[in-house]
């Protein structure tokens, strides 16, 4: 009798699976056949105790096989229902766009600066960010009482050891190793104790250049910088050199370009003077030449330096220097 009941259950299962069209119908089948209280298969298993030992083993094995088959067939039926309910995928449609990374605007501008000067015959050099007083100040003719050497301006790591405040220290290291003529540019991160705001940052990037050889004059400096400024900005520029003071150059000048907003007529962007300051420059001070073993009676040179962030802000119309450090993808994806 139990064998006939198992065969009957198999037939009922096949009939029920063929008619089931929903998850609810499959759940009703599961309860009907495998439910603990009223499941048809459990009725058979509970009756095994009344069978002879030989029949008990045979019927029990057949019931367990049927239980596994019912569970498997119910799961297969659920998978078919889910697959039928899933929306069709049109494989001919294009996939979602993949967002790729971009070079940082400071990287783009830095590479462009180096490229412009390499085409003018300058070589690229690098130097350490952790410097000594000598290379950062002494060799550059900066007196011991200069305010730039104070703790409120410079990050000191130990007595006489600091994070460089400018890349001018690279000039000293290069001139100590190489004899004139020297034409080099350098680019790197610098550090100063500036409060963070829209136009200042305690960490920034500086680009600097040096040319030392016989007969170099301020006229050469003006010619090189005028050519550079014409190439780096995507708009026509006029330049203005105004007297300035730096310990390591004499004479010294600050260089401005005509404001791209007002074309040098004066507006809030340029402080109503028509020009934006972009860099400092000058003829290398004779004491600096002597400090590296050069004879200022035989060779002369010029140097210049600028903030890469400053150039990028003018070039791309960026109003806040802090955007360079935030790594906001919406900001970075504007540059390519």
UniProtKB/TrEMBL annotation:
SUPFAM superfamilies: Class II aaRS and biotin synthetases, tRNA-binding arm. Residues 109-326 form the Aminoacyl-transfer RNA synthetases class-II family profile domain. It is an enzyme of class 6 (ligase). The keyword Transmembrane does not apply. PROSITE patterns: AA_TRNA_LIGASE_II (PS50862). Its main location: cytoplasm. Mg(2+) binds at residue 250. Its EC number is 6.1.1.20. One of its GO terms (biological process) is phenylalanyl-tRNA aminoacylation. Binds 2 magnesium ions per tetramer. The keyword Magnesium applies. GO terms for cellular component: cytoplasm. It catalyses: tRNA(Phe) + L-phenylalanine + ATP = L-phenylalanyl-tRNA(Phe) + AMP + diphosphate + H(+). Pfam families: Phe_tRNA-synt_N, tRNA-synt_2d. Its cofactor is Mg(2+). Keywords: Aminoacyl-tRNA synthetase, ATP-binding, Cytoplasm, Ligase, Magnesium, Metal-binding, Nucleotide-binding, Protein biosynthesis. It is found in: Cytoplasm. Tetramer of two alpha and two beta subunits. Belongs to the class-II aminoacyl-tRNA synthetase family. Phe-tRNA synthetase alpha subunit type 1 subfamily. This is Phenylalanine--tRNA ligase alpha subunit.
């Amino acid at each position: 009798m139990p064998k006939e009941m198992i065969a009957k259950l198999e037939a009922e299962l096949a009939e029920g699976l063929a008619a089931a069209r929903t998850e609810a119908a499959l759940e009703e089948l599961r309860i009907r056949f495998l439910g603990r209280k009223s499941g048809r298969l459990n009725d058979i298993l509970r009756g095994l105790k009344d069978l002879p030992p030989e029949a008990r083993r045979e019927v029990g094995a057949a019931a367990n096989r049927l239980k596994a088959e019912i569970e498997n067939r119910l799961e297969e039926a659920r998978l078919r229902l889910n697959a039928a309910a899933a929306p069709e995928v049109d494989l001919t449609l294009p996939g979602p766009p993949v967002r790729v990374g971009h070079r940082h605007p400071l990287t783009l501008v830095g590479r462009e600066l180096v490229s412009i000067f390499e085409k003018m015959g300058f070589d690229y050099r690098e130097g350490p960010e952790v410097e000594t007083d000598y290379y950062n100040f002494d060799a550059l003719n900066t007196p011991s009482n200069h305010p730039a050497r104070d703790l409120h301006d410079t990050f000191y790591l130990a007595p006489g050891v600091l994070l460089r405040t400018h890349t001018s220290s690279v000039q000293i290291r290069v001139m100590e190793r190489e004899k004139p003529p020297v034409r080099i540019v350098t680019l790197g991160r610098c550090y100063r104790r500036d409060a963070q705001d829209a136009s200042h940052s305690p960490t920034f990037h500086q680009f600097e250049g040096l040319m030392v050889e016989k007969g170099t004059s301020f006229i050469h400096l003006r010619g090189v910088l005028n050519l550079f400024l014409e190439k780096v900005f995507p708009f026509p520029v006029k330049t203005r050199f105004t007297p300035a003071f730096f310990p390591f150059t004499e004479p010294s000048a600050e260089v401005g370009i005509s404001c791209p907003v007002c074309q040098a007529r004066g507006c809030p962007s340029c402080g109503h003077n028509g020009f934006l300051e972009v860099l400092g420059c000058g003829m290398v001070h004779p004491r600096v030449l002597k400090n590296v073993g050069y004879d200022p009676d035989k060779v002369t040179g010029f140097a210049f330096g600028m903030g890469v962030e400053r150039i990028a802000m003018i070039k791309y119309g960026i109003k806040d220097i802090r955007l360079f450090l935030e790594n906001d993808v919406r900001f970075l994806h504007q540059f390519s």
